[in-house]
Task: structure prediction
Amino acid sequence: SDAIQTGSFKIDSHRSARSKRRRRDLSVAKMETAKPIGSPIPVAIYPTLSVFTLAIGLVITAFFFIYEATSSRKNRSLGMELASATVASVFLGFGSLFLLLASGVYV
Amino acid sequence: MAARNWIFAVAVAVAVFLSLSTFSSAQDLQIVNAERRIDLSSHIVKAFLTLKVENIGKDPAADMLLAFPPTQIKNLAMVQALAVMGKKKKKTYLPLDVKPTEQPDAPNDAGYFLVSFATPLGPGETVTLEVLYILTHSLEPFPVEITQSESQLVYYHDSAVVLSPYHVKQQTTFFKTPSTRVESFTSVEPANRAGKEIKYGPYEDRAPYSYAPVIVHFENNSPFAVVEELVREIEISHWGSLQITENYRLTHGGARHKGVFSRVEYQSRRSITGSSSFNALLAVLPPRVNSVYYRDDIGNISTSHLRTGFKKSELEFEPRYPLFGGWRATFVIGYRVPLEDYLFEAPDGRRYLNFTFGCPLVETIVNKLTLKVVLPEGSKDPSAVLPFTVNQDLQVKYSYLDIVGRTVVVLQKDNVVPTHNVPFQVYYTFKPIYMLAEPLMLVSAFFFVFVTSLAYVHIDLNIVKK
Result:
């Protein structure tokens, strides 16, 4: 294929610059007919995203355990406990996923 | 009277036999001119055959047969045929379909390939074909064992005339050797040698299936790098990367090394000793590659250089020791490439992976290549599309955060040469919602911890009620 490429280059030098550009555009257009699939979230922001989600998750975990420790049996609200547990586990779960992805373990 | 009856019966039988044989061999094609150029510079033998075929029969011919002797048929790695259209500066090449076939009356177990013409060849018409075929393991080292300071000499067995089921009017064969040192070559008149080229021919009017065995004994110090087994695993992760792991078992397939290996002699007089040995190998990797590692059972091997580029990356690496005849090296090369370069969406909604088959090492033969494509969890209906035949299989692999396991498409092929580095596709269906299975698994694990601590706090284990 190298020989074919150099051969077409020799013929190209006789053509005008405009037709040369058109020729190159055709080859690029051919490659772009297939739609590439990538990650839903840009790979470059995985480390930043993991730090932020884990930080928020740990803050809410702290709130959960402080609530458990400081409230007495009477004024403890199960709804509050479950809500904070759910939100904390969601953030911690996604945070640990992004941490795994950022460190190279592509699960 | 009885004797005359006997002779008459025998004559009839012979006439019937002759007519039957001409009927079954279909001699309506003939080769006007055959030129064969065989390149013996490396251990992968490449033969370029230019045939000018004429239809001398009354019916149009849709295909033609290429014959190979039984010793060559098992070493054939690839046969390609192109039809030449136009002349001189406006030549275009049209690829033709080549399939291995069996013929019932093959003399001496010759093997056949059927080449289908683009348009059937009419009576009286001619067509020029360019056939490329590649032979592996065809250079036989002789002497079989050499010491460190000797050069490597090999035998190449072939025929001075092209083996063909058709009559060949004129033909020439050229052998190109890597150096000017040729110990001997069989002389089949007219045969002569000029520098690095041995010319056999031109030969006129040869009958079908004529064969003149020749042996060329010459020096070939090119690296005989043979990978005995290569297992390539491509793991697709929809979170953004393709991880490729390659396990190599590399050998030197040339003349076996005998005697001692003197490191002093090897390092001080490198130009004389170990002329057939090699210690550096080149692997051609995809352009945007990262996290390349090269290690073996002992640990990381640091003798490597990676040069990334826009069209390809090159990894030049050295095993822990130089390889002499019969020596082995086992190692693992792994690298990661971005997913969007290789995973695409087909118009019918399926996803497909577009990757190159074959071994990334240059000028190496792979005896047994196993390519495993690990599809993410939740993928269904896998299928592989390749331009040549391979053995396909399905396996299951359990990896990180897996419940049901990942489907693995296993493609296996023997006798792989660098010409097999062509793109192939693996199609599968995947619903994007299945990507949430992994984070939800982690979320539920953390939630379980919270629920346990909640239960511990709420449970009253006092014996005496306060």
User: Anything to note?
Assistant: The first helix of chain A runs from residue 2 to 12. The CA atoms of residues 36 and 81 of chain A lie 44 Å apart.
